[in-house]
Amino acid sequence: MVRIDPAFDGASEPLASLPLCEVRLQNDARFPWLILIPCIDGLVEIEDLGQGDRVRLLDEAVLSGRAVRAIGEALGRPVEKLNIGQLGNLTRQLHVHVVGRRADDPCWPGPVWGQGAPAGYEINDLAVARAAALGVLRL
Amino acid sequence: MVRIDPAFDGASEPLASLPLCEVRLQNDARFPWLILIPCIDGLVEIEDLGQGDRVRLLDEAVLSGRAVRAIGEALGRPVEKLNIGQLGNLTRQLHVHVVGRRADDPCWPGPVWGQGAPAGYEINDLAVARAAALGVLRL
C-alpha cells in the first residue's frame, strides 16, 4: 500500500481503488472532482512513471472523467467540459485532478485550483455523488 | 493539416511538429510554456482520442516537459516543477499545456491559466527559448 500524503486527507476522501490509482472524491460541492493517485511510492512527475503505467494513468483519467460526468448528472448539473490537471506545486506526491466544469460554476472559465473556498457537500448529495461515481468506477 | 483555432495565434507561436501534435511556444516569458495540439479535427476531450493516440499524446507531453526544462536551463531559470493541464474552457480545440514552474514565479503555487498578464519575450530570449526547446523536440 502506497503512503498517501496526509495533505489529501482534509480536502478529499477515499472513493475507489483502480489497477494503478487510488481515486479520491474532492470535498467540494462546487464541482464534481476526482483525484487519482498512482500507488507507487516516490513519484512526482508523469515522467517518473514507466510507459505502461502512463497508459494506465491516462485510461484511469478517462474513466474518472466518465465518473465525474455521472456525478454531475446525478446531482442535476451535467458536466459541460472536463478539466484535467497535474500540478503538485503544494503536494508533491504525483496526482491528477479530473474536474467537471459548467459555464455557471463559480470559477468558470478559469481553473479551479486554489480559487475560492471549497463548499462542503450536503450529506445526501455526498451519498448520491459517491454512488454515481462508483457506478462507473466499479464497472 | 488540421485547422488550428485562431485563438491560439495571438498567445503562442508555432514551434515544431511531432507525430501526433503541433507544438506551440506560449508568448509568455514568465514561464517556459508549450502547448500541444493533436492534429486531428474535431477533438475536444482526451476521451475523444483513440487509445493509440492517447499514448502518443502523453509521450509527447513528457517530451515537451523535457523541452520546457531545457528552456528554463537555457534562460538561467531551471524548472522546479512541471504543470500539465488540459482545460479548454475558452478554446475548445483539444490542447494540452506543459508549463515549467518555480517557487519564485509570479503565480506560484497557484495555476498559471488566466492569471495576470502575459509578459512578452525579449527577442534574444525568444531565440534562446526556441533553440533550447527544438534541441529536445527534434532529437
Defining key terms:
homodimer, alpha+beta, globular, HIT family, subunit A, 5-stranded antiparallel β-sheet, 5 strands, 139 residues
Question: What is the gist of this entry?
Answer:
Chain A has helices at residues 7-11, 51-74, 123-137, and strands at 12-17, 21-26, 33-38, 81-86, 96-101. Chain A is an alpha+beta fold and 139 residues long.
Structural notes for this entry:
2 copies of one chain form a homodimer. Chain A has one domain: 2-Layer Sandwich (HIT family, subunit A), CATH 3.30.428. The mean pLDDT of chain A is 96. Chain A is 32% helix and 22% strand. The first copy, chain A, has 3 helices and 5 strands, in the order αβββαββα. The first copy, chain A, has a 5-stranded antiparallel β-sheet with strand order 1-2-3-5-4. With 139 residues, chain A is α+β, with helices and mostly antiparallel strands. Chains A and B meet through helix 2 and strand 4 of A and helix 2 and strand 4 of B. Strand 4 of chain A pairs antiparallel with strand 4 of chain B, so a sheet runs across the interface.
Topology record:
The structure is a homodimer of 139-residue chains.
Chain A: H1 7-11, E1 12-17, E2 21-26, E3 33-38, H2 51-74, E4 81-86, E5 96-101, H3 123-137
Antiparallel strand pairs in A: 1-2, 2-3, 3-5, 4-5
Helix pairs in contact in A: 2-3
Head-to-tail CA distance between termini of chain A: 23 Å
So what's the oligomer here?
homodimer
Can you count the beta strands of chain A?
5
Q: What class would the helix/strand composition of chain A place it in? A: alpha+beta
The largest beta-sheet of chain A arranges its strands as 1-2-3-5-4
Which residues of chain A sit in consecutive blocks of at least 5 with pLDDT less than 50?
Answer: none
Determine the number of helices of chain A (DSSP H or I, runs of at least 4 residues).
3
